[in-house]
Amino acid sequence: MSSEPKIIIAIDGYSSSGKSTMARRLASEIGYRYIDSGAMYRAVTLWAMRHDMVAQGVDPDVDAIVAALPEGIVMDGRDIGTVVFPDAEMKVFCDASAERRAERRYKELVEKGAGVTFEEVLDNVRTRDHIDETRAEGPLRCADDAVRLDNSSMTIDEQNSWLLDLYRSRISSLG
Fold first, then answer.
1. pLDDT tens for residues 22-51?
2. CB-count exposure of residue 26 (10 Å: 0-12, 13-18, 19+)
3. Are 142 and 148 in contact (CB under 8 A)?
4. ∠37-38-42 over CA atoms, to 5°?
5. For residues 147 and 68, what is the distance between their CA atoms, to the nearest angstrom?
6. pLDDT tens digits for 62-72?
7. Which among 3, 2, 5 has a CA at the least distance from the CA of 167?
8. Is the pTM here over 0.85, yes or no?
9. Nearest CA-CA partner of 88 in 149, 175, 167, 19
C-alpha cells in the first residue's frame, strides 16, 4: 500500500454508532494512523479542569498539523468531516437506530459491571443525540459529500468490509 496516495479519512456519526471500532480497524488494515478525537477532547478537558482553565477560543490549525504527518490518518468523531476536516478525501457518516445504538452501549456497560438499565441507556443516547444535533458549535450533521452508512443491521465484520471496499474505491479513483 506504500505506493498509494495517503489521504485523510473522516468518520462522523452519532454516539455508539460504531465510528471508533470501524476507524481503528480500518487504520490498522491499511497502515494509517488512527486518531481518537473523543480521547483527545476528554484529555484536554481533564487537563483544563485540573488547571482551572476554560478551554474556549482554542482553534489549532489541525490541517497543518496533519499535513506534517507522512502517513494517512483515520479520525473519528462527531464533527470530523464537517468542522475538523471539511476537505477530507473520504468521509463517512455512521448511523443506526437509537435503539440499536443503545443496545450496543448497554452491552458494553454491562460487560464493565455497570448497574444500568436498557431504558436509562436509551434515554442517554437520545439525550446525547439532541445535544449533538442542536449545539451551537459544530452541530452533528452529515457532510454533503459524506457517504452515509446505516449499520443498524450489520455485524462489525460487515461494516468493516464495507468501509474497506469504500476506501479501495476512493483510492483507485484518485489514481
1. 999 999 999 999 987 766 666 666 666 666
2. buried
3. yes
4. 115
5. 27
6. 444 445 455 68
7. 5
8. no
9. 167
